[in-house]
Design goal:
CATH class of the largest domain: Alpha Beta
CATH topology of the largest domain: Alpha-Beta Plaits
Distance between the termini: 74 Å
Structural class: alpha/beta
Strand content: 15-25%
Number of helices: 16
CATH superfamily of the largest domain: Reverse transcriptase/Diguanylate cyclase domain
CATH architecture of the largest domain: 2-Layer Sandwich
Length: 479
């Protein structure tokens, strides 16, 4: 059992070694072209001369990412910032803190110029700029030994999961999964202790952080039950009231070679294990475990591939290959939840093909299908990436537009109406659509919002079609 546990930890950490590190080829080229040293503008040089030294904050308890020990920073963060400081040729002073949350507060108060190995979030961008990412690690969940393997975070949204206070993914996971039951803890170790005492179902953290903790403190008690799809993408965060700083660090990061980066990562992430014995039974056990693990991994990959395929089919309209009514209902519920909880704006646009029955009667249903498919392509190519388009039913389409006010929804609808009106269709001369727009207002549920959009669409049709109308604000006067 000891060999199996040690092998699992080593395998989990080795996975990190194969993760793609962003921008290696590009950064290596920049370094070769800048062999004489860092190329700074006159303004950047003046800025550094005036500063004379920089102050930094780090996560004080997140090995192997970093740690403050006896007033000094050690770990990946220490080695990377030492390398970058050498390239910029400026000393960097450590500002000590008791927690990552305190480090973030110090950065917001402008008591430190940079945060080392930080991830960008909308909230942090209010007071920080971020360099290009130069490290990326997957998130993982640690649970007790008796719990089952977790293939997707959706499987445990009803469980209490710990996450460190100030962790970027506390904010992002709440946005991605509003129903998630996250409990903020002071540190990774505090969360793992709660998991070991069954006070939490699991603890979320980066794979190297959790692997390091399990190998050094929780052997036999906890395990890594799953690796999440989300990645923790890390870079340098700089105070945004001194915008030159981010550009300077980006230039330094561009000069970090792949070899330098790998050497630092291997020093801290690849955990070296020396066996006390060298008996053949142990080696055989490790080999058998490896074969079993590879088989299970392949079987899991196959199952996941087929499940993803079935999931995709269940939410995709067969004719147009865009979202179907089921997926639109889910997305609309999610948008309403975010709007009610975080006061986010969003609008919906209901679209109906004008005189579609005449197209079917005159040209046949195959040409009618062509009209629907072509319209779906036109709509999908002319909306934002964050918008959700789907076939609402028959010749009707629905677009859900996050962050879009009533005026923004009207502008988008008018743009789409004009594009469709001018598009040359192959089998007939002209096609137009009518549009109804409704923006979310407090107190609306899905039925009310859709009813408002439908009333606006009905008005557009009554006014001669090929029109865009927006629903009235409360109390919604009758047409």
């Amino acid at each position: 059992m000891r060999y199996l546990t040690q092998s699992m930890l080593i395998f989990a950490v080795i996975l990190v070694g194969f993760l793609p590190l962003p921008g290696f080829a590009e950064q290596e080229l920049v370094q070769k072209n800048s062999a004489e040293g860092l190329v700074l503008t006159a303004e950047e040089r003046r800025y550094l001369q005036q500063k004379q030294q920089l102050s930094m904050c780090v996560n004080p308890d997140a090995m192997p990412i970093g740690k403050i020990e006896a007033g000094k920073n050690i770990g990946l963060s220490a080695d990377f910032i030492h390398l970058l400081a050498e390239k910029i040729n400026i000393p960097v002073l450590l500002i000590t803190s008791q927690s990552w949350l305190e480090s973030l507060q110090l950065a917001e108060q402008r008591q430190c110029d940079i945060l080392v190995l930080a991830m960008a979030t909308p909230e942090r961008k209010k007071f920080l700029d971020f360099t290009d990412d130069y490290l990326s690690f997957p998130l993982a969940i640690a649970v007790s030994k008796k719990q089952k393997f977790i293939s997707r975070i959706e499987e445990v949204l009803d469980k209490q999961l710990g996450i460190e206070k100030g962790d970027a993914y506390a904010e992002l996971l709440h946005l991605l999964y509003p129903a998630i039951d996250l409990v903020e803890v002071e540190s990774l170790h505090a969360g793992l202790d709660k998991v070991s005492r069954n006070q939490l179902y699991g603890m979320i953290g980066t794979l190297p952080d959790i692997s390091y903790a399990l190998q050094n403190q929780y052997i036999g008690e906890l395990k890594i039950a799953g690796k999440l799809q989300q990645q923790s993408n890390l870079g340098i965060a700089t105070r945004n009231d001194e915008p030159l700083l981010a550009g300077i660090f980006n230039k330094a990061i561009a000069q970090v070679s792949e070899q330098e980066r790998r050497e630092i990562i291997n020093d801290w992430v690849v955990i070296k294990y020396e066996s006390a014995t060298d008996d053949s039974i142990g080696r055989v056990a490790v080999g058998v475990f490896g074969l079993i693990f590879i088989f299970l991994l392949y079987h899991y990959w196959q199952l996941r591939k087929y499940n993803d395929c079935l999931r995709c089919l269940s939410i995709t309209d067969k004719l147009t290959n865009i979202n179907n009514r089921l997926k639109l209902d889910q997305q609309l519920d999610d948008a309403l939840h975010l709007a009610q909880r975080y006061q986010f704006d969003f609008s919906i646009i209901l679209i109906d093909i004008d005189h579609f029955k005449n197209i079917n009667d005159k040209y046949g249903h195959l040409i009618g299908d062509y009209a629907i498919k072509t319209l779906a392509q036109l709509l999908s190519h002319n909306i934002r990436q964050i918008d959700t388009l789907g076939r609402w039913g028959g010749e009707e389409f629905l677009i859900i537009c996050p962050g879009q006010t009533a005026d923004g929804g009207l502008l988008l609808a008018e743009k789409l109406r004009s594009i469709i009106d001018k598009h040359p269709f192959e089998h007939f001369a002209h096609l137009s659509c009518s549009f109804g727009v409704a923006a979310y207002v407090e107190g609306n549920n899905a039925d009310i919002l859709l009813k408002r959009a439908d009333k606006a669409l009905y008005k557009a049709k009554n006014q001669g079609r090929n029109q865009v109308f927006s629903s009235a604000e409360p109390p919604y006067p009758d047409d």
